[in-house]
Design goal:
5-stranded antiparallel beta sheet; alpha+beta; 5 strands; disordered C terminus; 33% strand; homotetramer; globular; 146 residues
Chain lengths: 146, 146, 146, 146
């Protein structure tokens, strides 16, 4: 965690977590789907349409945080991620984000490409069962140090 | 909206909204409850325990945004805010945040003070009916330019 | 000043000042040169090529800060701003930023347009003498609340 | 580089670099001086009193950037860092920051501790000659991926 992400309460500001989730998504895409740039190169942009976070324990400067995430609920032009932010096994926060795929040119909703859905299916099937937010023991997806 | 809050998609980054909600809360407290510092001076700290945002329309650099908010559901050591972010009548985003009051010294949960609940009741009763998220025509609380 | 701009030292994080300078530039352009969008509409983009800040006194949450700035040294495709950040007469910080104008299409350096130089000359001639950093008594340009 | 650090010009916002320099300082302290927390535990706080950056080439989303830095000019209660931000050998930016050490309790200026100066001397003597800003071929200090 960066010092610039702390606030005068001495803890990580709650808006910083939203950036961390994005950092984790980017790492997930790099690990499983050729990176975000490869999505853009295929003429698609993924918009964030919703974010939800619950803060369980404060995070402090220089904490090494692990973000576990799964890509779920791919349907039409929409998909979601679920997240657990942990510090040495302690649950710091849980959250989810919603996304929509649009054409980079027309900004019209565009079905999530089959190759992306396949890449996610491969990633998630390789992961242990259990979902973020429900106490997965050694969960899935990308572990990213914020 | 600040240029620093835009991203390479050419729109306001979704994490910036979380900061705007806080700016609106601070303005609400200044208008209705003597300001955040007055809460701190009474030995209380308000933590953010959850945030939820739905993004309906993109916001662009230099947009004049109005944030309407209500303080709701004051119970024990907890309360919530509900928000609508608008641009000339268009609904840009809706959201809510959850908060807990703790002692500044011990960090133990502390009942929301009666004077705060009374200040909120006065503010909300002065506001037109209708809640953020349900299309209030000329809603309540503080209007803040982000 | 926003709470999100504080850090665990209890003061405004030094990177936040860089954003404030930009907010002040945008206000200056709106007041004197038709706004930043009008520059972009003329096919020009202004890049930031340098920034320099000296921090004299800490700034705290909810401080009402005034940023005084002048546009100076317009030459070819380059120009600068000089800044003073004040709180009720106290000097919080001084700084400057350097900028280059480029074509939005080709990104090639493009002479600062004559109309912009003229607008700046008008703005600065209307301002009291004295420059940021040299203790101008009631300085010039735009005063912007951060 | 994080997506949240881009702006509507499609490049890294110039304020993000200030945060990266801090991330690099924290890594430098962890590598050479027992970490920032160890400084705090000795009753000292290091304030940032100045920052200076020159932007040479734009940085883009997902760029892997290397920040090279040296701690220099330790004198009394003051010291400086010099930086080079690079991308695969290309010079993206150069900069420096100035710092002052104060007592955490009284906030009075406090001499830079001898053990810190010694740790820096060890770190810098192990580093190849050449300084940030003067084209050091394979320079010193900490290399940090922003």
């Amino acid at each position: 965690m960066r010092f610039a992400e702390t606030d005068a309460q001495g803890i990580a500001h709650h808006a910083a977590y939203v950036v961390w989730l994005e950092v984790a998504r980017v790492a997930y895409l790099a690990d499983h789907a050729g990176g975000y740039r490869s999505i853009q190169e295929k003429g698609i942009e993924a918009l964030t349409t919703g974010v939800q976070l619950e803060y369980h324990l404060p995070a402090y400067f220089d904490d090494a945080l692990t973000i576990r995430l799964r890509c779920v609920d791919i349907r039409g032009a929409r998909f979601r991620y679920e997240y657990r932010i942990e510090r040495e096994g302690d649950l710091i926060a849980t959250g989810s984000t919603s996304h929509a795929t649009v054409s980079r040119e027309t900004h019209a909703p565009t079905r999530v490409p089959a190759w992306f859905a396949a890449a996610v299916a491969t990633a998630e099937s390789a992961a242990p069962e259990g979902r973020p937010g429900r106490g997965a023991p050694a969960p899935p997806g990308t572990a990213s140090r914020a």
